[in-house]
Design a protein that fits this description.
2 copies of one chain form a homodimer. With 456 residues, chain A is an alpha/beta fold. Chain A has 15 helices and 9 strands. In chain A, 46% of the residues lie in helices and 16% in strands. The two termini of chain A are 38 Å apart. Chains A, B: InterPro entries: MeTrfase_7, MeTrfase_capping, SAM-dependent_MTases_sf.
Amino acid sequence: MELISVLHMKGGIGDSSYASNSLVGNKVISMTRPIIEEAVSNLCRNATIPEKLCIADLGCASGPNAFLAVLGIMKAVDKIRKQGGFQSPEFQVYLNDLPGNDFNTLFRDLPQFQESMKEQLGLDFGPCFFTGVPGSFYCRLFLSKTLHFVHSSYCLQWLSQVPQLEEVNKGNIYIATTSPPSVISAYHQQFQKDFTAFLQCRSEEMVKGGRMVLTILGRKSDDPTSKECCHIWELLSMALTDMVSQGLIEEKRLDEFNIPHYNPSPGEVKQVVENEGSFSIDRLDASQVNWDVYENDGAYNITKCIRSVAESLLANQFGHAVMDKLFQRYLEIIADTISKETTQFFSVIVTVTKSALRLQEVAHFGILNHQQSANVESSSSGVKNLLSEFNDADEDLNEKDHIDDYILDPDNQVYENVLSDGEGDEEAAHRGEYLSDDEADKEPQLPGTTNINFSI
Amino acid sequence: MELISVLHMKGGIGDSSYASNSLVGNKVISMTRPIIEEAVSNLCRNATIPEKLCIADLGCASGPNAFLAVLGIMKAVDKIRKQGGFQSPEFQVYLNDLPGNDFNTLFRDLPQFQESMKEQLGLDFGPCFFTGVPGSFYCRLFLSKTLHFVHSSYCLQWLSQVPQLEEVNKGNIYIATTSPPSVISAYHQQFQKDFTAFLQCRSEEMVKGGRMVLTILGRKSDDPTSKECCHIWELLSMALTDMVSQGLIEEKRLDEFNIPHYNPSPGEVKQVVENEGSFSIDRLDASQVNWDVYENDGAYNITKCIRSVAESLLANQFGHAVMDKLFQRYLEIIADTISKETTQFFSVIVTVTKSALRLQEVAHFGILNHQQSANVESSSSGVKNLLSEFNDADEDLNEKDHIDDYILDPDNQVYENVLSDGEGDEEAAHRGEYLSDDEADKEPQLPGTTNINFSI
């Protein structure tokens, strides 16, 4: 299967589209807003604001979420430049997704978004130029040394391909407790390979000192078979198995099928970034959000969400004809599950800075001139600066939020950290409205979320 | 009517799509190939080839034509860099059209095009990054001073809006001999205003010395009511009038309707470029191509072509329900017309170079430093250099082509010039194949075309 030509979120704006079923994605981007603001603040503090500022959102899909992160980034830049009394930079915004993405819907929503942006940010903001970039982010997508800020949310858990498996992953469509060890290992290796390729490509495309905020659907446990990440696919696998027993799907087709998906732990993300060596880690956060985002119609919403995300793959393997029945059965299973237990998605959020040289290159050449040395130092000491800055920033937020204080990794000392949910009104965003900061601040806190930050 | 949200070529790849009905556009781009090659050659000769070369195709639509001009530009750059023994630049390609364009089809065709490009140009070519840019080219679309080469074919005859008319253009949908003088004047003024805005925007976006090749569906005569440009719309107006007499369309709706289209003469194009002042004209060419491009199924093909181009506007005014009947009547009228007379589209092709300063700025500041002075000189003397270069380049082409030697403008001395049709096999391009130079050279010359070049 040529994944690049098959995988895409469900296009359009209909009831089953991703645009209408991206509440979780919306909430996660909103929750990440303070992290994005902090990264923008650091980008603009260590250097003057570039005259031409290039931002890329990788895996933007279509619908209201596609512009949400970009809006947050631009607002953060605009706040800083106003505080400093600078002229607005020109913005180049790259919206990337696979060629099968519904760019038509994305582009048709753009004029309305631009109008809203003008109203909120004023006429002295920008100009701002939007482009769509079709292609896999595991390959080069942009000119060398042009990007200042890269964002990606809930995309990097998608692998470039289903891993090459030596054994059949019988009865499963993803890693499960009953998966052979070779399957689990193949999945992990594919993630390492893909995420490394991603970092290598971005390393070539980003300017020195550029920032990247990546939110990945992951897990908190070290155990890749942990229910916290595998459960959603296990339930789909149950629905598929029911379809096999009803003779609606061939067993052979199910045996062949595995989801090209991997939910990494914070430690696994950290390891790949460090091994690749082009970026220093500024922050490593984790957060969780209930499957039932709004504690209302949960089973129905989560089923539609997974359908809008995975139907292209499933229909390619099992045919379009059985999709309605499959997702009806899935809905029943999900409803039963969430009535009995608390179910959550777990996100790993990593903020990185492009180093002057890859750590391997530093070791190889053995010399650094003054400028490079200064940059490498500033990258590696970034965390320390950031901690003190972050503590200051926290003062405004503490009352609004709550945290979990469990320790995610025995080697990492967890310190308390809280995140507000930035854009606030997801329903407004789904109506195609983009809230101003004032309006967003009035919104109540979202339920069902917790956040923690790792020391790194 | 908000034109930007209504006008678009018919999307998809079906029988009625623009992708399947763009033979004229295809032929015109092919004919322009030597002009594009020459402009690329001048761009790369006066300076070293930039490490990052940014190309924009404005009004790309979708289908095979969307990549044809860009391919020609990249091939021309690659030829020069190979001759000079340079490394390939990185290419950034911007494919622009209105937000209603079918970018999904465009992007889904991209992987196949990239494969073909790799085969033809080799692995040491590029890398080459493609982006889609939704928006009107009468506004800013790109960052300041980033574009090296701009191409647009058969788009600039579309105005940004229907001109504000003081009188009803009774019985017509475009300029006609029976149009009131105020209507003709309003159309001309709208063209001047729009084309000026286009040049101002590109002037901000292009680097000094950047080249632009613009092919506009125009006319040869000084008379804007000349049949050579108005005929195709007069026949559509006849079909619409028939629909009114059959009670299928309200007369009032027809009276209100005018096409936002203007076919300029070479002299009018020249005048706007000179008045705007940011660009110097290197060449001003004209060519003509039969309505019946392949002298086969002419009426059917031209009707489908115009339908794929104008249906979005017509359906918006008269409703989708009457479109089939309207175009059936139009087909009958076209068939009758081309059986009795030779009917041709006329193109104006202008090649310009971005000057160091706008001529008005030179006059205003009254001083030029050495560098600026050198650049302005080189721009204004570009034509002289180009003529001698072009005569050399002609040697390979003379045997293949033919010319018309009529004088288009009493003030312009016409010299003989011939153009080959570049990519050659439009049918292959319509199958989604992209010919190599060797293959293209084997193709027979296209029938029904003539070309002339104006001294300027």
